[in-house]
Amino acid sequence: MAEEFNxxxxxxxxxxxxxxxxxxxxxxxxxxxxxxxFDEESINEIFRTMHTIKGSSGIMMFDDIMAVSHKLEDVFYxxxxxxxxxxxxxxxxxxxxxxxxxxTGEMDKLQNGDxxxxxxxxxxxxxxxxLTSIQGDSEKAGTKPPPKSEHVEPKQFYIAPVATSASHFxxxxxxxxxxxxxxxVHAYKTVYALKEIAEDLLYSPEDIIADASSAxxxxxxxxxxxxxxxxxxxxxxxxxxxxxxxxxxxxxxxSAEEFVHGxxxxxxxxxIDLESDVEExxxxxxxxxxxxxxxxxxxxxxxxxxPGDFVIKSKEPGKKKKLARDKPKGEKASFISxxxxxxxxxMDLIGELVISExxxxxxxxxxxxxxxxxxxxxxxxxxxxxSTDLQNVIMSMRMVPLTNTFQKMxxxxxxxxxxxxxxxxxxxxxxxxxxxxxxxxxxxxPLMHMVRNAVxxxxxxxxxxxxxxxxEKGKVTLSAKTEAGKVWISVEDNGKGLDREALLAKARKxxxxxxxxxxxxxxxxxxxxxxxxxxxxxxxxxxEYSGRGVGMxxxxxxxxxxxxxxxxxxxxxxxxxxxxxxxLTLAIVNGIVMETGNSSFVLETAVxxxxxxxxxxxxxxxxxxxxxxxxxxECFPVIRLGxxxxxxxxxxxxxxxxxxxxxxxxxxxICLFVDRLIGEQEIVVKPIPSYIKKVKGLSGCTQLGDGxxxxxxxxxxxxx
Amino acid sequence: MxxxxxxxxxxDDELLGTSNGHDAQKDKYMTFKSGSEYFGLKIQYVNxxxxxxxxxxxxxxxxxxxxxxxxxxxxxxxxxxxxxxxQEPFEYNDRTCIIVISVKSTVVGxxxxxxxxxxxxxxxxxxxxxxIGNTDKAHHKYVYGIGKIGDTVKLLLDPxxxxxxxxxxxxxxxxxxxxxxGD
Lengths: 720, 183
Known about the structure:
The complex is a heterodimer.
Chain A (H helix, E strand, L loop, with lengths): L6 H25 L8 H21 L2 H20 L6 H23 L9 H20 L27 E9 L6 H13 L2 E7 L9 H8 L1 E7 L3 H7 L6 E9 L1 H6 L9 E2 L1 H20 L13 H8 L25 H22 L12 H25 E3 L1 H18 L3 E6 L4 E3 H22 L3 H6 L6 E10 L2 E8 L6 H10 L14 H6 L22 H10 L3 E7 L3 E9 L4 E9 L2 E6 L3 E5 L6 E3 L5 E5 L2 E7 H4 L14 E7 L2 E7 L1 E9 L13 E6 L5 E5 L1 H5 L1
Chain B lengths: L1 H15 L11 E7 L2 E6 L3 E6 L13 E7 L2 E7 H4 L12 E7 L2 E7 L1 E7 L5 E2 L15 E7 L2 E6 L1 H5 L4 H15 L1
Parallel strand pairs in B: 2-11, 5-7
Antiparallel strand pairs in B: 1-2, 1-8, 3-6, 4-5, 6-7, 9-10, 10-11
């Protein structure tokens, strides 16, 4: 990132870090949305996330974000400390998501250079109510509420450890270097370290972690600790020593009396150490619980019906208790974030390298007869290997798992189904599938449309499902797999499926059908494709989410722009499947280089089914100039590339001297006639400069081994 | 060849002047010959001058768009200025040059008959193109001024209008008037 430490850089950092945190947060929350409560780890994680966001927002002076994250932190503080039994889990999930949405929204504004002017007071009010309600409930359930949070005036729950005669009492004054950043964190580190030996510990200023402004106080007034421990001054010095952050440490031994008296400087007295405080309370709370219910359960996870809980629970009759599953914690991979443009540059350079490599290795100078190239060839082979590896590595660097994209869909299902009052289970399969980053950017929106459609139109309402004798809970499955160099992403629902009759009727009304053709002449696939036409929606009611007839056409457009296709399949009464078939990567493809006249063209290897030399008698000429070729009893339309593009130079006229290529795109087959084939090569796809208007049948260009440029043919464009 | 290298050096020198601020480039024009006229382009639009190289033709485009060239790994389109002005095409040879210009982040190569020199024309020597009747109006489409150097004049080109084809009608009219001139 930027070397200079300016506000701009800080904002970038702020947005980047918090964006990641929020993403992680959403993932955690959604993972456990179907559980009855969050597991302890997640509660801690959400608490920490909110804490971090609060802190950094405070530094950046985004007060609303700070306030709202603070409030949510309070809620999770309460959850963490008192393990209330009966939190309406879904409501909590919604609150967390709302907060995360609010912050994301504000961050979007900041990203666009607008001020973060959103008003969080409504959210805070809701959270307050929520907190009060769960606190009220938990009190009834017999759990003692803990102190609300650090910043709240201390309720002294603190039970002083008994001082033994071996205990010493110390006053420690720590002075930080004035330029120390985040001195409150440094101070906390010290406190944390001292806790190891401390019997009792008090410090001032108090809420060093919660309150970022305490950093200033610490810098100005120093950091003061009262310590009761069985150790010598030397031991303390070993723990708290002067270093790059701490300028000076003063330690004075004092009497127990003085210690109890606390800090003899003005202002608010001492604050107790939170962690040990917490432990006490936890213990106490658990004891209470055990006493009152005779249940020896450390982390109370068993849900208990309570008034506030009932409403939500009744929506899920017969739902089995499900504990949030434990996530296996693998070893943490380390990441660095790299600017995408640098990646693209690297990609380009490697492309160049591959090309110049072939320029060297296929240099005409090497073709001089009588040269002994043995060692050259060995070295060349080694070099080719390395450059291939290099290419693979850069490709894999650009490959990103679909996990994040899928997680977003999870969120959409959750939101939409809640709003529509549908009960929907969401399953993800193969979210680890890796796809080129560019492609992921292109499929996110289309997928969103498809998932929304599945939830909104696909899955029937709970009542309808019951009537149809189906399980009330609908299911949407999002799956991804790689097959034959393509990625398949399907959205499957077990809803009512597409209504062929309704689609046909609508199509008829819109004049899309041939009036002379009966309905039965249209195959199911053809009929289903109608929904991808602009302005085509059979939904009578327009909902917030879908039904305006825009959407599916946009989906298809987006998918086609990256060389993908959409397939729709449906079984009435049992649901529908929409599958996206997209290429793995856009950047490097295997291509066949061919020539017509003096022009070189490239075709993606995957679309070429066969090469064929034909004889004149296999050709069929129509009077209007169209040609067909008969191969093994099958008749293919023929495109002569030279004629198609009306090339000025001479090109092969006789079919017997040229080469036929059979191409297959989307179940259609055609023959392409070219002068000659040059060979297969890995090509780096480059766009044709936008200055040149789009030419039908061309999708890009690439550099050949000799540095010249070849045009990449787009088979879809040739066939259409 | 020497002539070209010399010019290229001159251009490079001029372009290096950027670091000294824009003043060094102010009032400097790259001039080239097309047909019987000399044209001038503001030097800050000029990236570099390259030797003629193999052009990959693109089918189904305007005939003045000659195709694509590979400029050190970057694919850029090239247009033939004579054909752009609807003048008679000319034979390319190894003296033919391509002026690479960049206008609003579009990089385009201009194939010109002959590169002349870099000249300095101060603002006071630039006249608006004279208007006679309606037909000449079209001329303003890409000639925005006439620069005087001693007795000679250079037609100063607006590169944006030169490469963008949003006024086909105008081009036709220029064509007509050019033909008349040619006759």
